[in-house]
Design a protein that fits this description.
Part of the ABC transporter complex PotABCD involved in spermidine/putrescine import. Responsible for energy coupling to the transport system. It catalyses: ATP + H2O + polyamine-[polyamine-binding protein]Side 1 = ADP + phosphate + polyamineSide 2 + [polyamine-binding protein]Side 1. Its EC number is 7.6.2.11. The chain is of the alpha+beta class. The chain has helices at about 40-50, 90-100, 105-120, 135-150, 165-185, 195-200, 220-225, 230-235; strands spanning about 5-15, 15-25, 30-35, 55-60, 65, 75-80, 155-160, 185-190, 205-210, 210-215, 240-245, 250-255, 260-265, 280-285, 290-295, 300-310, 315-320, 325-330, 345-350, 355. It is built from 8 helices and 20 strands. It has a 6-stranded mixed β-sheet with strand order 6-7-8-3-9-10, with helices on both faces. It is elongated, with a radius of gyration of 25 Å.
């Protein structure tokens, strides 16, 4: 396995900017995800690691070896494409064996390695089937097996689950993570799906417009977004504007548009957030952190009118008008009566659940 370093990498296509100043280090054996909307530069970055694109500026290293201008077939990476790129005229066995044949591996070793990897991805007995005789999930596993059988240092996956239905995506997501943990292979995964990124990754790089917005663990990305884009792109959140009216070493007091003052913890601020008295700040409040309260006054208790009420069985979702703002909340169904549109409601926002985005 190998670490991967992108040292201030840029990529331009003529006058168009694809990726700007990507500077990251991916540890050996890490599951690292590039996450962002379409056109954000995540696939361009992955293709530079694979060798399909060469950087306009910067360096790429696998461990201590510089590979910036090394062609793809000399990088020892395995790639799984969004459309799988399987050969329809070949059997499952032949598809998986193709990379080994190109490398002039002996027939006996090819047979042993292909059968071993087919067992690992749970395709025993499928070797003689044609690709058009497989389900989407089975085709995805053939693509994964073909990438793994060459024993790459680094596994690259470009939105490999986007063609699968919801149930199959969930099952295959588990299989990919199981294989990655079992093999200990350095894995770089591209997706626009936040649930995939959050559930599979050791760390996530969030991109927008070709620029890295934040790198961190799923917990850090979710709970300590560095700006409004990350906070709104990762899951669902309430973003409220406010003005800092008081602070000490531990707490920050912010006046929101309704005139009420909310208290948060200074430690829950992104590095870019300015928390001096008088500064404008963005509060990020996750719906699941907001708790219905029978109280109408008190620290961090806000009152409002229910605009939308959704009962899903396991949970109750509310959208509540609080002054000029709306507050989305989600709570586990505990059997209490569900409030309806127009009802007054009290909501408690724990101070440890308020995060200050830059």
């Amino acid at each position: 396995m190998s670490s991967v370093t992108l040292d201030h990498v840029h990529k331009r296509f003529g006058k168009a900017k694809g990726v700007e100043d990507v500077h990251i280090h991916i540890e050996s054996g890490e599951f690292f995800t590039f996450l962002g909307p379409s056109g954000c530069g995540k696939t361009t970055t992955l293709r530079m690691i694979a060798g399909f694109y060469y950087p306009t500026e910067g360096q790429i290293r696998f461990g201590s070896r510089e590979v910036t201008s090394v062609p793809p077939h000399k990088r020892n990476t395995g790639m799984v494409f969004q459309n799988y790129a399987l050969f329809p005229h070949m059997t499952v066995f032949e598809n998986i064996a193709f990379g080994l044949q190109v490398r002039s591996v002996g027939k006996a070793e090819i047979k042993e390695r292909v059968e071993r990897i087919m067992k690992l991805v749970r395709l025993e007995g499928f070797g003689e089937r044609r690709i058009d005789q497989l389900s989407g999930g089975q085709q995805q596993r053939v693509a994964l097996a073909r990438a793994l059988v060459i024993e790459p240092q680094i596994l690259l996956l470009d939105e490999p689950l986007s063609n699968l239905d919801a149930k199959l995506r969930e099952e295959t997501r588990f299989e990919i993570k199981r294989l990655q943990l079992e093999l200990g292979i350095t894995t770089i995964y591209v997706t626009h799906d936040q649930a995939e990124a959050m559930s599979m990754s050791d760390r996530i790089m969030v991109m927008q417009g070709g620029v890295v917005q934040q790198v961190g663990t799923p917990h850090e990305i979710y709970h300590r977004p560095v700006n409004r884009f990350v906070a709104s792109f990762i899951g669902e959140t309430n973003l409220w504007a406010g003005t800092v009216v008081g602070r000490d070493q531990a707490e920050v007091h912010v006046r929101i548009s309704s005139g009420q003052v909310l208290c948060g913890l200074a430690k829950n601020a992104s590095p870019k957030a300015r928390l001096a008295v008088g500064e404008q700040v963005t509060l990020s409040i996750r719906p699941e952190a907001v708790q219905e309260s029978s109280e109408r006054v008190g620290m961090n208790i806000v009152t409002g009118t229910v605009v939308l009420s959704e009962f899903t069985g396991a949970c109750v979702h509310y959208v509540t008008a609080v002054g000029q703002e709306q507050l989305r909340s989600m709570s586990i169904n505990m059997g209490r009566p569900v409030k309806q549109r127009g009802d007054a409601i009290g909501l408690h926002i724990p101070k440890e659940s308020i995060y200050f985005a830059g």
